[in-house]
Amino acid sequence: MIDRAPDRPTVRVEDVHKRFGRLEVLRGISFDVARGEVVVVIGPSGSGKSTLLRCINHLEKIQQGRIYVDGELVGYRVENGNLKEESEARIARQRSRVGFVFQRFNLFQHLSAIENLTEAPVHVLGLSPRLAREQAREMLSVVGLEDKARAMPAQLSGGQQQRVAIARALMMNPKLMLFDEPTSALDPELVGEVLKVIKYLARTTGMTMIVVTHEMDFAADVANRILFMDGGVVVEEGPPAQFDNPREPRTREFLRRVLQRDGAEEETEPDKLDVNGGSQ
């Protein structure tokens, strides 16, 4: 089922419910993401943020509602007014148009950086190996890793691996990019290099993005709109400036805790431990 209206949003989420057994993780989520918009999703652990992204890419099945990407119903088709799950081949085709960057880098450990980038374009899109390698070198340059083409994942830092993962997702020329807390698995000193790449993409490519993150300065800098989730629902949404003085008490409490945590980290950062356990 495809909505061919010229002004359709890139993403439409309609009354989505997701349960794991008796636990309802998403409880009626609805929102649109316009073409070229960057939406940042924030909220406490367990609020349903990552599950929401996985449902958009049909990595998780929903129990109620509908999700559309570029006007096409994701993961299902309508038969006699009822939803039926699509074939694996069609779902795979839909996923190929959506880039997904996970918390963990999920690189193929036995392949070099450039081989990680060329694997899907060659075998899924049918690109020639020569053209795929040319495009991969260009993409590695975009993320600042043109000199790491032959490096194996084990030879790269966490930040470098995540940048390879971003480049790999971009190789599929996606209509939508999903980022699931892309810096949460990184050491603090490596976070900035990954956020810099995402900021560059947001500002220069016009790509539609949904980013789940706990980095509030980054959210305020790149988002067109922020969604705050808690308890499986969208509690508050609006432009970044709105979150300087949130309307909802739950949003204010969440941001207060985040600011306290970040402040505590800044206070303890100058004290580093030597190999014997003493401060220096």
Q: How would you briefly describe this protein structure?
A:
This protein is of the alpha/beta class. It has helices at 49-56, 88-95, 113-123, 129-142, 158-170, 188-204, 216-222, 249-268; strands spanning 11-20, 23-33, 38-42, 64-69, 72-73, 76-79, 82-85, 98-101, 176-180, 208-212, 225-230, 233-238.
Annotation keywords:
single chain; 280 residues; alpha/beta; six-stranded mixed β-sheet; four-stranded antiparallel β-sheet; 24% strand; globular; disordered C terminus
Structural account:
This protein has helices at 49-56, 88-95, 113-123, 129-142, 158-170, 188-204, 216-222, 249-268; strands spanning 11-20, 23-33, 38-42, 64-69, 72-73, 76-79, 82-85, 98-101, 176-180, 208-212, 225-230, 233-238. 35% of the residues lie in helices and 24% in strands. It contains eight helices and twelve strands. The chain has 280 residues and is of the alpha/beta class.
Number of strands: 12
Give me the number of helical elements: 8
Q: Return the string of H and E elements.
A: EEEHEEEEHEHHHEHEHEEH
CA-based gyration radius: 20 Å
Query: Uncertain runs with pLDDT below 50, 5 residues or more?
Result: 268-280
Average pLDDT works out at 90
Rough outline: globular
Helix content: 25-40%
The assigned structural class equals alpha/beta
Give the strand order, joined by hyphens, for the main sheet. Answer: 8-9-10-3-11-12
Largest sheet: 6 strands, mixed
Termini separation: 63 Å
DSSP strand content: 15-25%
